[in-house]
Amino acid sequence: MANRVPLSAGRMTRIAMIAALYGAATLVTMLFLGGLAWGPVQFRISEALCVLALFTPDAIGGLALGCAVANTCNIVLGGTGTLGLLDVAFGTLATALGAWFTWHFRAKPALAVAGPVIFNALIVPAYLPLMLTGLGFYTIPFTSISLDGAWGAMYLFGVAATALGEGVTMYCLGLPLARALKRTPLPGLLASDDVVPAQGDRS
């Protein structure tokens, strides 16, 4: 069985840096775009950073941690209260799974960046109606359909709206960002690991 790569200081630093970058970008989106970072129609610009998972598996943990921190902060900034914990738990899960998909299919970037689109579109709309109702949204956006007893309709709306916003972010922002990053030393730095000397080698 193959040896696991140890969680070295270098890897922990990368995870922390990616988490800080994603968290900060998400908080900026929340401050300037409000509900577009977490509402029924989402355009979370920070999701473009999921392309970092094309270059390192450490992005999976980093993006998930950054998402958890940002969604926790949104409990205060967005006034979501305890309902915001749903976003902390399941929004973070969607980000982690999307980043894992991106890393797994990194050899095919156009396919790989579909991961965040798929998982966010399937997971986020499942709990979003509960959050929206708790915040005073009683109808499905752009319609007169009541949220009361219309979880199925809201879920389908959410799948379409989230997929659209996430798709625009990943393919119009994320892929160009990935192409630009490939022309820099960053991919090499993200892919490098600390060299741990063999036991007895102290040269």
Explain what the structure shows.
With 203 residues, the protein is mostly helical. The longest helix has 32 residues. The protein is globular and about 50 Å long.
List keywords for this structure.
single chain, globular, disordered C terminus, mainly alpha, 203 residues
Q: How far is the first residue's CA from the last residue's CA?
A: 29 Å
C-alpha geometry: globular
How much of the sequence is in beta strands?
A: under 5%
Mean pLDDT: 82
Strand elements, count: 0
InterPro entries: QueT
Pfam family, one: QueT
Organism: Leptogranulimonas caecicola
Protein name: QueT transporter
Give the topology, please.
Blueprint: H1 9-33, H2 58-77, H3 84-104, H4 109-112, H5 114-134, H6 151-182, H7 186-191
Helix pairs in contact: 1-2, 2-3, 3-5, 5-6
How would you sum up this structure in a few lines?
The protein is mainly alpha-helical.
